[in-house]
Amino acid sequence: MTTDDTGTPQNIPTNLRLLLLIEEVAQAGVPVTPTEINSRIGLPKPTIHRLFATLEAEGFLQRDIDGRSYSPGARLRRMSVNVLSSLRIRTARVAVLNALALEVGETCNIATPDRDAMIYLDRVETKWPLRIQLPIGTAVPFHCTASGKMYLSTLRPNHLEQYLKSSQLEPRTDRTLVHAPALIDELTDVRTRGYATDVEEFMDGMVAIAVPISDATGRLLSTLSIHAPAQRMTLDDLKAYLPLIRETASKLAQLVFDDET
């Protein structure tokens, strides 16, 4: 429920209700029910259910697997990517990525989670002629990429369980983790150490490392990763750059919120 500066409940103008609802769903970061959202907004029960139905019908929200809760739909996810790709933010973001790529000498990427894959939002290519082509907009699996495993490691146990039950862990190489227990063990390690790796699990001859780009509450917004041909750089070589990669991730996170500080 919205309040004024004294904490007194205020009526929400009709033209703000949908925006506030979308804002609450996005901030939750997990599937939510209309009742949960309404505990913060305070609209009449028929109204909140009507608004949810409208947003679902228009593709801004989608019903979750339990049939009761909702998460961002395709249109809302596309909107968030478009906001993050706005010219002012993207110009600064590419400059930060460029500095990292020049220091490391390999391709640097920003990826964001979509419904069933990580989507490359931005990248700066290595100057080496031997490179791995994964252009902006490419969708890559969660279970066998550094960025995807970084994202999976942040899921609540019940949501990770739903993902594992409903997804086929397709082998991309001989090293891909295709059994749920092994992947869960790997994600536990990722959660503990704060970074994820891909040692030829997604593509033969490629190694990668990823860290989260997080908001002020620690929730993952996107990932920052570096990938390289295994014949040119080992995983230990990439790990040596972890302090710089994490510092860069912090700079990228600040770009999203600099107008709020």
Name the features.
globular, Beta-Lactamase, alpha+beta, six-stranded antiparallel sheet, 10 helices, 8 strands, Arc Repressor Mutant, subunit A, 261 residues
The largest sheet has its strands arranged as 5-4-3-8-7-6
* CATH homologous superfamily classification of the largest domain: GAF domain
Q: Got a strand count? A: 8
Structural class: alpha+beta
Number of domains: 2
Query: What is the radius of gyration computed over CA atoms, rounded to a whole number of angstroms?
Result: 20 Å
Q: Assign a percent range to the helix content.
A: 40-55%
Proportion in β-strands? 15-25%
CATH-defined topology of the largest domain: Beta-Lactamase
Low-confidence stretches: 1-9
- Please state the average pLDDT score: 85
Q: Give the topology string: H per helix, E per strand.
A: HHHEEHHEEEHHHEEEHH
> Could you say which overall geometry the principal axes of the C-alpha atoms support?
globular
Can you put this structure into words, describing what you see?
The chain is an alpha+beta fold and 261 residues long. It is built from ten helices and eight strands. A hairpin with a 5-residue loop joins strand 7 and strand 8 (220-229). The longest helix has 18 residues, at 87-104. The model is unreliable at 1-9 (pLDDT under 50).
